[in-house]
C-alpha cells in the first residue's frame, strides 16, 4: 500500500512518463456524449501560425529612412531627433541644448531676452547686444558649431584603400607597411 502511495506522490513537474500516460488512458472511465462535444470543441482550436517578424528598426535606422525619403521637415522627424539627442545627452553637452537648427530656432522663439543672454555668454558671444542682434548671432554661432550635425552628415565607416600586390607601387607600400 505504501508503494502505491509513493508512486502517486511522484512529481514529474509537467513531464509525463510514457508508462504513466498509458496507465491513465487504461483507467479512464468512458465519457458521456456531452463531454465528448466539449472535447471536440477544444481539439478544434487552430494552430498558431507564427509570422516571421521583421527585426525592429532602431531609432537611427528610422531617422536614416526618413532622411532618404526627404521627410526631414516633418514633426515626426523632429520628435525622433529630439529623442535621439536626449538618449545621447546632447542637451547636456551642447550649450545650445540641441544639434538641430529648426529645434534651436523654435527654442529661440520661446526664450526670453535674459535666456538668450545666458546662452550667448556660455557660447562666447557678447550678451550686451540688443535682442534682434543677439538672436541672429546665436543662430550664426549655432550654424558654425554644428556644421557636421546628424541631418547633414551621418558618420559611417569609411572604406579603406585596397592595395593590389601586383601593382609595383602598391607592392612597395605593402612592403613598407609590413616592416612597421
Question: Could you name the ranges where pLDDT drops below 50 across 5 or more consecutive residues?
Answer: none
- Measured distance between first and last alpha carbons: 84 Å
User: What is the tally of helical segments?
Assistant: 10
In what range is the share of β-strand residues?
under 5%
Helicity, in percent? 55-70%
Largest sheet: none
Shape: elongated
Architecture overview:
The chain is mainly alpha-helical. 58% of the residues lie in helices and 0% in strands. It has a domain of 82 residues. Helix 7 packs antiparallel against helix 9 and helix 8 packs across helix 9. It is elongated, with a radius of gyration of 35 Å.
Features:
180 residues; mainly alpha; 10 helices; 58% helix; 0% strand
Explain briefly what this protein structure is.
The protein has 180 residues and is mostly helical. It is built from 10 helices and no strands. It has helices spanning 2-9, 18-27, 33-43, 59-68, 75-88, 90-93, 101-110, 113-123, 131-145, 168-179.
Amino acid at each position: 500500500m505504501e508503494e502505491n502511495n509513493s508512486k502517486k506522490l511522484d512529481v514529474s513537474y509537467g513531464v509525463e512518463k510514457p508508462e504513466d500516460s498509458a496507465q491513465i488512458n487504461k483507467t479512464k472511465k468512458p465519457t458521456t456524449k456531452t463531454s465528448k462535444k466539449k472535447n471536440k470543441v477544444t481539439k478544434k482550436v487552430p494552430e498558431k501560425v507564427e509570422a516571421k517578424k521583421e527585426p525592429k528598426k532602431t531609432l537611427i535606422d528610422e531617422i536614416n529612412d526618413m532622411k532618404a525619403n526627404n521627410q526631414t521637415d516633418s514633426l515626426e522627424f523632429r520628435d525622433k531627433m529630439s529623442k535621439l539627442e536626449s538618449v545621447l545627452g546632447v542637451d547636456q553637452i551642447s550649450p545650445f541644448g540641441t544639434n538641430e537648427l529648426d529645434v534651436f530656432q523654435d527654442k529661440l522663439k520661446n526664450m526670453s531676452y535674459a535666456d538668450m543672454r545666458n546662452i550667448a555668454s556660455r557660447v562666447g558671444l557678447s550678451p550686451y547686444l540688443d535682442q534682434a542682434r543677439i538672436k541672429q548671432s546665436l543662430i550664426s554661432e549655432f550654424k558654425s558649431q554644428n556644421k557636421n550635425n546628424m541631418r547633414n552628415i551621418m558618420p559611417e565607416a569609411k572604406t579603406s584603400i585596397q592595395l593590389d600586390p601586383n601593382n609595383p607601387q602598391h607592392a612597395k607600400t605593402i612592403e613598407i607597411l609590413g616592416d612597421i
